[in-house]
Design brief:
Blueprint: H1 2-19, E1 27-28, E2 34-35, H2 43-50, H3 52-59, H4 65-87, H5 89-94, H6 97-108
Antiparallel strand pairs: 1-2
Helix pairs in contact: 1-2, 4-6
Length: 123
């Protein structure tokens, strides 16, 4: 499990944050059918992010409670950012929802008080 957290899960967080795209929003196709957008993030990364809650019980032996909470907050926030951009990117950006999520992410990622992540989206 340790290898998954520091390997696949960490890679999924990086891939998701690097791929965020407001253009990848929910939409209708030519035939009028709804198409779920992924906010620019591929399904494999989303699946890896979704696996963390199930893995938390197995990491209790090598992560402190505080580290587990920060890990859950960081991964949950990345997952939420993807859905915010897929559902309604304009509102997420214009109404400050995205910046609030980025503040949570920055706080969760700073064990010693220094922000370790940046949340920037090119429009």
């Amino acid at each position: 499990m340790e290898r998954w957290v520091v390997g696949e899960l960490a890679d999924a967080v990086e891939r998701a944050m690097g791929a965020l795209d407001p253009g990848g929003c929910d939409r209708m196709d030519r035939d009028g059918a709804a198409v779920d957008g992924g906010g620019g993030v591929d399904a494999a990364a989303v699946a890896d992010l979704a696996g963390l809650p199930f893995a938390l019980l197995e990491v209790a032996g090598w992560l402190s409670s505080g580290q587990q909470v920060r890990l859950l907050a960081a991964v949950g926030t990345v997952t939420a950012i993807v859905r915010l951009l897929a559902n309604d990117p304009g509102s997420a950006i214009e109404h400050g929802e995205l910046s609030r999520m980025c503040a949570i992410l920055a706080y969760a990622a700073r064990p010693d008080g220094v922000a370790l992540v940046s949340c920037a989206i090119e429009l």
